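Homework help board

Subject: predicted structure for assignment chain

Our instructor gave us this sequence and asked us to write out the predicted structure in token form, then describe one feature. I got the tokens but I'm not sure how to describe them. Can anyone check?
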Amino acid sequence: MIVDATWRGMFRCLVTLLLLMMATGQVSAGTEVSRDRTGRWGLGLETGLMKLTGGDRDYSNVDQFGAIHLDRRLNDAWNLQFAFRYGYVRAGVGQPGQDAGWSTDSGAPFYTVMSQPSVRLQRIFSPAATLSPWLGAGVAITSSKALDKTGEEVGTIPVGEPAVGYDTSGKLVDLEGTEFTMTAAGGLAWTLGDSWSLDLGGRVHWLPGVDRDNIGLSSIWGPEHVDANTFNVEGFVGFTFWFSSDDSDADGIPNAYDACPESAEDPDGFEDNDGCPDTDNDGDGVPDATDGCPDVAEDPDGYQDDDGCPDIDNDGDGIPDDRDSCPDVAEDLDGFEDHDGCPEADNDGDGVPDSQDKCDQTPVGSEVDADGCVILVIAPPVPGLAVVAALPVPGQTTVLPDISFNVSSARLTATSAATLDDLAQAMNDRPEAVVEIRGHTDALGDVEANRELSTRRAMAVRDALIARGVDPGRVRAVGYGEAVPRATNDTAAGRAMNRRVELHRIR
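My token output:
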């Protein structure tokens, strides 16, 4: 590869600078450094190789350039860059029609010198990482001049008058121009301590207005050999020095952006950009150092308030405290009022604790025995009247005889008619009486299905009485299912006694 001594010298200087930084301890893979350069200025140098392309010919070789840039880190993700770039390419072929490809050789003494001021914006994707990828875009003004150095001594920087060649229309012109340029770039930034970074990348410059030979060979080979290249591609390596910022607490956040310049930020993922240490992230009064839930506030309700974690269900009964009437006493999940959060020691309120109550859903106001089951008070018969016709006194309950239904239904059988007729007559003879029809089942089958069946059967008896002229307001109907047995459900005889319809007189 043929590389001009000046550019070789610049490259050697950059390598020497890297070695010097490593020798003096500026670069240390094992040292944690701040990578937040928000608000800081940087000064950088680049060198690299470039090639003009996009024309009708491929006459440009790959040659060198250098650049200097001034950076301003807007925040941890965006960097603004002002740059000046200078370099040249040469004619890379010696015969008409050849392709230079990616050769660094020069086949003819033509130099195309290029200078370019630009402004660029870079998006940094992993600012906290040692090796951070970035993408960039920018605009520039590119001035170029094709020089014919045939028989001349070429100095460090080629100078002189432009060659005379042809444009794309075949017109004879000076081979120089200034073009608006758009730039796209990408690369990697390697953080080398707090003040240095190594930059590697590539750029593509688009010069849409080029309409003349910008290699120069048309000046000797004619208008058929115009190579009007509209793209310049390059690869580069460089260093950037970042000037120190005023950061009193050395937390990586410049004082200009630091709300607590004398107190270092605690990088814990919570509001780490304001520069202030957050010793109690959730503001619950429990320091983060001892807070079991540093990002979720404690609920100071007198229950385990020192651990920093909210206890949304103190008693662990599955009912949140904000809906729990007894937040410190667990609900007894027994199917009775289980949504209020309070345990019910005596669900039916009959004075017999649930733990001893064999009939824990007896009707309110019922007289019960030691087992919690209803004591049936059978009304004595009235001489001269059927048993059913003798209504019980208020507060007493009697079983309606001969009331039967089709199996698993609420349809009354024909044998029930006589009892219903007598009961309707007794009700009509005593217009002050108000009664409640109570339906019961045995314990076979589903609990809810039994409750629903007993309710429908009680309603069927009520409807039959209303149909016989009894005022609807004087007859209520309630189904208790299997909840209030008269006898054991372990025998057929006991289950038969439990399947019944009762008449309870309210007044």
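Reply (TA_rk): Your tokens look well-formed. For the description, you could write something like this. The longest helix spans residues 447-467. That's the kind of observation they're looking for.
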